């Protein structure tokens, strides 16, 4: 009985794996050079390199044209620090206008979002954020009291990491393997 169940789980896992098309990846950049500017002081003031500042995200993509390169048209999900840049609602608008990733190669993207908010006193504030792999990321705020901008620049010291996200089928196969090992151990302990 257990043998049949394990064979069934293994076959189901293989069948599900063969259907998988969408692939997921977690990425991160660690270490940035910060700068600040404002409407009263437009020249950027640079701080010290921060080796602990992390920008991370996840994307899901389907290589529909089977060329080994994921493009912006093949993205199904793109998040930065847990916030989607493809599905925005309400006062927040967002988009990814440039994206490319090749397995074992470089990740390139440009993503932006804007929150346009009108306060109860009628003052309007706009916050715009941009994320570019070649430069870093920035936040620009504009309100009735002026404007300011914070940037975090990528340098030679910035570290990049990317890893594939295990698919649900992988977890299913892991569970089936552990269950099989448990069944074998249980069967051996009965014989002794």
| Uncertain ranges | 15-20
Q: Count of helices?
A: 2
CA gyration radius, whole angstroms: 24 Å
Could you spell the SSE succession in H and E letters? HEEEEEEEEEEEEH
Give the strand tally.
12
Q: Helical percent range?
A: 10-25%
N-to-C span = 21 Å
- Major sheet: 12 strands, antiparallel
Mean pLDDT: 85
What class would the helix/strand composition place it in? alpha+beta
Percent in strands:
over 45%
Shape: elongated
Please, could you describe this protein's structure?
The protein is α+β, with helices and mostly antiparallel strands. The chain contains 2 helices and 12 strands, in the order αββββββββββββα. It has helices spanning 2-19, 168-191; strands at 22-38, 45-46, 50-62, 69-71, 75-80, 83-84, 92-102, 107-118, 124-132, 136-143, 146-153, 159-165. Strands 1, 2, 3, 4, 5, 6, 7, 8, 9, 10, 11 and 12 form a 12-stranded antiparallel β-sheet that branches. Strand 9 (124-132) and strand 10 (136-143) form a beta hairpin. Helix 1 (2-19) packs antiparallel against helix 2. The longest helix has 24 residues, at 168-191. It is elongated, with a radius of gyration of 24 Å. Residues 15-20 have low confidence and may be disordered.
How would you concisely characterize the structure shown here?
This protein has 192 residues and is an alpha+beta fold.
Fold blueprint:
Elements: H1 2-19, E1 22-38, E2 45-46, E3 50-62, E4 69-71, E5 75-80, E6 83-84, E7 92-102, E8 107-118, E9 124-132, E10 136-143, E11 146-153, E12 159-165, H2 168-191
Antiparallel strand pairs: 1-2, 1-3, 1-11, 1-12, 3-5, 4-7, 5-6, 7-8, 8-9, 9-10, 10-11
Helix pairs in contact: 1-2
